[in-house]
Amino acid sequence: ASATEKRRWTLNDFDIGKPLGRGKFGHVYLAREKRSNHIVALKVLFKSQLQQSQVEHQLRREVEIQSHLRHPNILRLYGYFYDQKRVYLILEYAAKGELYKELQKCKYFSERRAATYVASLARALIYCHGKHVIHRDIKPENLLIGAQGELKIADFGWSVHTFNRRRTMCGTLDYLPPEMVESVEHDASVDIWSLGVLCYEFLYGVPPFEAKEHSDTYRRIVQVDLKFPPKPIVSSAAKDLISQMLVKDSSHRLPLHKLLEHPWIVQNADPSG
Ligand SMILES: O=C(O)c1cc(-c2cccc(F)c2)nc2ccccc12
Ligand SMILES: [Mg+2]
Fold it and tell me: What ipTM was reported for this prediction?
């Protein structure tokens, strides 16, 4: 049987290593599965916290979705188990860590690096949409970097159909498309919008509709108040792609398969992704 296939896991199956980070509901640790020596990331969530925030059903559903997705640019969920106080998620270990830290360090990315990331995310989203999974939470905090520098979508904010109002209350609005900030029904094209926001942030170092107050960000999103600063210098091909994704009418956003044929992606993205 493969090292990480469906089994009844317990904490004794793992040697626990250094903490990799902390989230709202608990910590993530480096861990090694004893039988296979397979290195994983073990996410430890406190049941009390999950109950307080009333997210246990969302977590179950997202774990269900995540465990069935298989794509090089989507972080694997190998399994889960729980004890009296905690829920443990057995996750793929992304050796080069969090993308948002890399973006903070570099300030912004080269056009080749940005295009390579955007193309790999587009392929991952085409895969998800093909399985009727809408991500809805594409932002730097939810992206990790694998050992070969490849991007991995790492968030459990996945959901198939429900719209979690609470999420928009506490999370940043920056990445939400008009139809979500206006709380009208939405479809897979919300991910095209968020990918456009991400592409802008990769190239300029800040998201396009950033403002001091939530209310100003809200207004800039619904008005699609898109401006390209003079610095850093960005090619018109990149601006053209972003302008075709950040379109208010969701049915007029550039479809993801067309994105992969856009000149800026074809000329700049590293095919290996
Ligand atoms: O005590 C439980 O049965 C329990 C199970 C799970 C759970 C079960 C499968 C997958 C998953 F992600 C989480 N989550 C919880 C969250 C709060 C309190 C209790 C639980
Ligand atoms: Mg998240």
Answer: 0.94
- 26-33 vs 14-22, strand pairing mode: antiparallel
pLDDT in tens, 55-69: 888 899 889 888 999
| Residues 178-194 pLDDT 10s | 888 876 667 889 999 99
DSSP state for residue 141 in the 8-state scheme = G
CA of residue 103 to ligand 1 center, whole Å: 34
Rg (the chain; Cα; Å): 19
Which residues are found with C-beta within 5 Å of the ion, ligand 2?
142, 155, 157
The three-state DSSP-derived secondary structure of 191-254 is HHHHHHHHHHHHHHCCCCCCCCCHHHHHHHHHCCCCCCCCCCCCCHHHHHHHHHHCCCCHHHCC
Centre a 10 Å sphere on the Cβ of residue 15 and count the other Cβ atoms it contains. Answer: 12
CB of 43 closer than 8 Å to CB of 26:
yes
Q: Which two tokens stand for residue 37?
A: 């020596």
For residues 39 and 213, give the distance between their C-alpha atoms in angstroms, rounded to a whole number. 42
Run of H or E residues at 181 = helix 178-181
Name the pTM for this structure.
0.89
Instruction: Specify the ligand 1 atom closest to the Cα of 56.
Output: 16
Q: Which protein residues are within 6 Å of ligand 1, measured from CB?
A: 47, 50-51, 56, 59-60, 63, 80, 82, 87
